[in-house]
Amino acid sequence: MKEKIISTKIEVLSYDELSAQDKDLIDKAKEATATAYTPYSKFHVGAALLLSNGEIVTGSNQENAAFPSGTCAERTTIYYAHARYPEASFDTLAIAAFSNGHFQASPISPCGACRQAILEYETLFNKNIRILLYGENEIYLLDGIKSLLPLCFSEF
Q1: Is 120 a catalytic residue?
Q2: Which of 75, 121, 125, 148 has its CA 20 to 30 A from that of 84?
């Protein structure tokens, strides 16, 4: 029997260690949590996506009583970004979560469906999308979605 070990490199940063551009993206993701529609979970997630053309697109999770008809902040954001700016590739995606009156202490990561959707755009543009996962105590920086989806199905 053979064994494979899969490891993930995650850079752990504080807000002060971020570039001005990454701070702006995190701030916009945090602001986007305010537009979430979450009457059931009360868990507000916001995302901000920096495009290759310099535009920043934001989105938030949207729930629905006909579960699972709602959508996550990540997919709301990337789908709108590509519909609005189909020629622009995705550079950096920032994600933040707010609940019970405060931002999460530790970063949250995208669900499986969002991971696969992000991978689709990495494949489309043939490049990794940097991912910033915000937590009040620390921020994770990943160099692409394969860090969270190592055995993915992709040609890229």
Answers
A1: no
A2: 148
pLDDT tens digits along 3-13: 989 999 999 99
Please name which of 117, 103, 132 lies closest in space to residue 26, comparing C-alpha atoms.
132
Choice among 3, 11, 74, 136 that is catalytic: 74
Count CB atoms within 10 A of the CB of residue 19. 8
DSSP string covering the chain: ----------EEE-GGGS-HHHHHHHHHHHHHGGG-B-TTT--EEEEEEEETTS-EEEEE-B--SSTT-SB-HHHHHHHHHHHH-TTPPEEEEEEEEEETTEE-SS-----HHHHHHHHHHHHHHTS--EEEEE-SS-EEEESSGGGT-TT-----
Picking from 76, 54, 77, the residue whose alpha carbon sits closest to that of residue 63 is 76
